[in-house]
Amino acid sequence: MDNTEIRQKKHTLGILGGMGPEATSVLYKRITDRTVVSRDQDHINIVIYSHAELPDRTGCILCGEGERLWEQLAKDVNLLKQAGCEYLAIPCNTCHFFADRFAREMDGRFINMIEETAKYVAERRFHRVGILATDGTLKADLYRKALEEREVEVVYPDDHSQKAVMSLIYDQIKRGEKGDKHLFQGIAQHMHGRGCEAVVLACTELSVFAVNHELDGGFYIDAMEVLAKSCIETCGGQYSY
To answer: Which listed residue (85, 95, 196, 203) is catalytic?
Structure first.
C-alpha cells in the first residue's frame, strides 16, 4: 500500500444547522481549524444541512409549540441519516430541549453539546458558573440539570441582564451585527459580581460574538468550542486548540 493508505477510519458527522446560519459556519470553521492535519484526508467527513427556515426555538418552547418544531427537526435528522451521517451535532443550545429525542433518532450517536460542556466544566473543578443563554434554554433549565448532577452551582442572570442577553442575541447577532461589546461587558460584570468563577457562552450566537471580539478565554467557556472538540474526537480526528 502506498503513502495514501487510510490511517484511521473516519465517521461521517451530520450538522443540523441554520440556527443561526452564521453560528453553523463558525462551528464548521472551528472544526476545520482545530483538527490536526497534514493532508485533506486527515479532516473528518461532514454533511451540513443549514435549515434557516426552522421556526425560532425559543419562541416555540415558550409558546408551547414544541411538537410542531420537533416534527420538522425529525425530518431533518432523517435526511442527514439518509445522506450517510453516523453522528449528529446541532450548533444550537436551545434546540437541545429535544436532546433525548435526537439521541433516540440517532441510536445514541448524538453529540450533546450541553452534556459535553457540563463535563468540561466539572473536569476543571469550577464550583459556581454563570449561564448566558436564550430565554428558551433557561426556561428548560438545560444547563442547570446537567451541571448540578456534577455538583456545580448554576447562576442565571437577573431579569435586567437577561433582557440584555436576549437583545444581544436577537437584536444584534442574528441581524448580522458584530454585537455591542460594552453591553456584553455589563452582563459579564453582573455575573462576576454574583460570584461566578466562569461564564458559559450557552448560545451559539454568543459564540459568534466571541469570534467577533476575541473574548478572554480565562473567564468564558464557549460551548461551541467544546462541541467542536467532541465532534473531531468522536468522528476519528485529532483535536488541537
So the answer is: 203
Q: What is the pLDDT along the chain (241 residues), one digit of tens a residue?
A: 344 444 568 999 999 999 999 999 999 999 999 999 999 999 999 999 999 999 999 999 999 999 999 999 999 999 999 999 999 999 999 999 999 999 999 999 999 999 999 999 999 999 999 999 999 999 999 999 999 999 999 999 999 999 999 999 999 999 999 999 999 999 999 999 999 999 999 999 999 999 999 887 689 999 999 999 999 999 999 999 8
CB atoms inside a 10 Å sphere around CB 167? 14
CA distance 109 to 84: 13
Q: Among this protein's residues, is 203 annotated catalytic? A: yes
- Is 63 catalytic? The answer is no
With the C-alpha atoms ordered 184, 190, 193, 199, is the resulting torsion angle positive or negative?
A: negative
Identify the active-site residue in 92, 196, 231, 235: 92
Helix, strand, or coil (residue 130): strand
